[in-house]
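Subgroup meeting minutes
Present: P.N., E.W., G.H.
Scribe: E.W.

1. P.N. recapped why we're keeping a running log of single-chain structure predictions: easier to compare across weeks, and new members can see raw inputs and outputs side by side.
2. G.H. added today's entry (437 aa).
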Amino acid sequence: MLARLGLLPLVVAALVLAWNVTLSGWIATRREGASWFRNLTALAGLLIAPAAVLAIAASTDTGARTITGVAWLWPVTCVLMVAQAIAATAGRLVSLSVGVPIVFYNVLLALVAIGDDQVLRSGYAPDVLQGLIAARDAVLGVVSGRAALGSPLSVLIPLIAPAYPARWRSSAFVRAVLVLYAAATLTLLVMEWPRGIGAVRSYDASARTLAPRDARSFALGLRLLPDIAGLPDARAVRTGARLYDRLNPDALLVSLNASAVRSSGLDSLVRVLAPYRSDSVRLIVALSFTREDAIGVRNAPQLASRLRLDALQRVTEALRPNIVIPALPPALPGVLFTPTVSTLWWQQHLREAARTVQRARPQTSVMWVATRFDAADSVMHAWATDSTSPVQLVGFTPLPSFAGLASVDARLRVADRWVAAHGAGARAHWMFMAGLP
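Output recorded in log:
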């Protein structure tokens, strides 16, 4: 996660958190002023760090399934920060030039937190709030790129308003810097807000023009568990079972960390999947492919390939899937990160993976998934759909960027060109993963 988002937003968030905790503790010890204001500031400073941790955790795949019940703490804490800033400014405990930018900055971040919470709980929020969420991602995207769309660390921290005069010149300087930061971020959020609303509404506009498709062309799939790096999480297993009973999907996806495949973990996963094997559901098993895997490929390509093939064989023999994906980039909420590896290595690895799967379980098919829709993916698609390719299935992941549905349309048009150029009948094509950022 650190590598995807970049250091600058994380450093700024850490500094703001440190400022909030330190300043709130200092204000709480002051004897002058109303006790309710000191208590309000102390409560906000006490909650801000654990609430931020919960907000980050709730944005992860595992957290969204397990800690939704306490995720309300983040929007509540943001509202407390708004109340503290308004109280300090209205009571003239801080100058208007300092207090007003912090008040409006905190108000926008509170609205973002409320929107995030509504989306987490119900999958929906009003366009105004979703547009502000998109504006937040766009602001962070200035320094982080597309990773800001899906990284759990994409969070902006509200500010405690600095009541009472600064004790030292250094603290006065820090106040000035943070006020400038709040004003600049506030300005960028306001500027990006209309674009964010437009990006959100682009989905509704397109939905009214979509041509209906034959229902027999589609199969509903469910990602049953978060990426598994050891023993399956018990709470995630229970949540997945409830989703399965509610959705009754046609396919299940299970993604594993190839470097963490152990016999004990596979044995536990076999027991978890046993109730689903009696149904007609198709089981898809993927080995995740991270930035660390890409580094291993560049440094020692043969060793990295051998380790992944050994893991693939163990997984295929133990889980007996209908489909395997030898290398799937880890899915973040709304964005897929694909490490750069040469197409020659991918082709050779997929050939060896197909031979490994054929030996372990001939009934299992091999799928390659396009995630970047760039020149390298074009080469890979042409290779995967060739009659001599060992790949039986091809998947697409047309996930959006900051432009909303326009970016999805662009990726779908690219996919259409590939299919038209290389023949639709050569391989079955799956819309493997799609969604909102």
